[in-house]
Design goal:
With 256 residues, the chain is α/β, with parallel strands linked by helices. It has helices at residues 28-38, 59-73, 95-108, 122-134, 152-165, 179-195, 217-220, 240-253; strands at residues 5-7, 10-12, 18-23, 45-49, 78-81, 113-117, 138-145, 169-174, 202-205, 224-228, 238-239. The chain is built from 8 helices and 11 strands. Strands 9-8-7-6-5-4-3-10-11 form a 9-stranded parallel beta sheet. The protein has a two-stranded antiparallel ribbon with strand order 1-2. Strand 7, helix 5 and strand 8 (169-174) form a beta-alpha-beta unit.
Length: 256
């Protein structure tokens, strides 16, 4: 049975998938403008894509910006993410700098969750999992493949490894080359959630072909979808209004 996560006023892992809006502003002004938009639409959680922030190399400025976001967003949970260039992000970063940045961010108490990339290796993941959990911060452990969709067994194995390492929310995003790849991702998510998962899971197939995976989580096991209020942070993201509309229809059909 999947144990739900209670994060501020959001319950992750039960019912209709939650909507996460990415913040991709390059500076304080752009981020504040994005927050203003977020607060006018349906939003369960925001992701600060800090790799887009032009002053990301100054840790103190990052922490000040995070504090400002925390105050502006009030009770909306914040997922802090530095997406590395190898997994579709804006900047390169050494493993040492990545760990130091995350340690500083976790220590502020202003992020409710942090995204840690699985491919950085078990040592980095172990350090940051321990640091996050010691500070009562949840970890989304992620894996992104912008080139292809691995076979079902590989995806399930990757999910299981994340869970075994202690990730609070395993997350996998892949790129389809055909409709069959979307089915592979959905089947793998369903198999993992039905046979192995004891915590919420996030999965998505990217691009136009994969858009169906972003709104079908309630059927196959993914507990959260990313939707854009402005600039999308990944290919295939729906607008938040479209995502909310479709998710409401699918969820309410269950009760008819």
């Amino acid at each position: 049975m999947v144990e739900v996560l209670k994060i501020r006023e959001m319950t992750l892992g039960k019912g209709k998938p939650k909507i996460c809006i990415p913040l991709t502003g390059k500076n304080e002004a752009e981020l504040k403008e994005e927050v203003s938009t977020v607060k006018k639409v349906c939003c369960d959680i925001v992701e600060w894509r800090a790799d887009c922030f032009e002053e990301i190399d100054d840790v103190e400025k990052v922490k000040r910006m995070l504090r400002e976001l925390r105050l502006l967003l009030e009770r909306i949970p914040i997922l802090f993410t530095f997406r590395t260039s190898s997994e579709g992000g804006e900047k390169e970063i050494s493993a040492e700098d990545y760990v130091e940045l995350y340690r500083e961010v976790i220590g502020t108490g202003d992020a409710d969750l942090v995204d840690v990339e699985m491919m950085l290796g078990e040592e980095v993941c172990s350090i940051l999992l321990r640091c996050a959990h010691d500070n009562h911060v949840y970890v989304v452990m992620s894996s992104h493949d912008f080139e292809k969709t691995p076979d079902k067994e590989t995806i399930v194995s990757r999910f299981r490894s994340m869970q075994e390492q202690g990730a609070d929310v395993p997350k996998i995003a892949v790129m389809p080359r055909g409709a069959g790849d979307v089915l592979t991702l959905l089947a793998a998510t369903n198999e993992f959630t039905e046979r192995y998962a004891d915590r919420p899971v996030i999965s998505m197939s990217m691009g136009w072909l994969g858009s169906i995976s972003r709104i079908s989580g309630e059927f196959f096991g993914s507990s959260l979808t990313f939707a854009a209020a402005g600039r999308a942070s990944a290919p295939g993201q729906l607008s938040v209004r479209d995502a909310e509309y479709i998710l409401d229809i699918l969820h309410n059909t269950e009760n008819e």
